[in-house]
Amino acid sequence: MFPIVVYDTNILLSSIGWGGIPGHCLDLARHGKVDGLTCMEILSELEDKLTTKLNFTSTETANTFEDFRGFLRIIQINNTLKVVDADPDDNKIIECAVVGSATHIVTGDRRHLLPLRNYRNIQIVTAADFYAQFSR
User: Fold this and answer.
1) What top-level class would CATH report for the domain 4-134?
2) Under a CB-based contact definition with an 8 Å cutoff, are residues 74 and 38 in contact?
3) pLDDT digits (tens, 9 = 90+) for 90-124
4) Which of 22, 35, 41, 77 is most deeply packed, by most CB within 10 A?
């Protein structure tokens, strides 16, 4: 089965700011080895993080999003799924995966998402585990 993946905001931010394994995970989507998904809610959170944590200008953010649109499919969610009570922001990640029929969520969230391990047959994995599985 061809992997369909939602990258958590922390993976997107890490791929931009530091590269490394999160960057390699995004490169899998960039090069068509996996199908990458996102939604406007994830991009909105990322925009905030780019501004506050990496001091991106609006032009730098727009260029980043233009790049992402080249290899991430943007889907629409309704913000109705409630799975993670402790951190409601994580629900958009799971809902994006459910609506987009994803096979994987790649995240660094060790408090809320990774402990779930899977949700409705969607594997929730670290960037290192995902990259090890699909980089071949």
Assistant:
1) alpha beta
2) yes
3) 899 999 999 999 999 999 989 989 999 999 999 99
4) 22
- CA dist 48 and 62 (Å) reads 12
7-65: pLDDT as tens digits: 999 999 999 988 899 999 999 999 999 999 999 999 999 999 999 999 999 999 999 99
- Looking at the DSSP bridge assignments, the partners of residue 73 are 37
Q: Residue 52 corresponds to which tokens in the numbers above? A: 């506050």
Q: Return the closest-CA partner of residue 50 out of 19, 17, 20.
A: 17
Domain chopping of the chain, boundaries: 4-134
Q: State if pTM tops 0.70.
A: yes
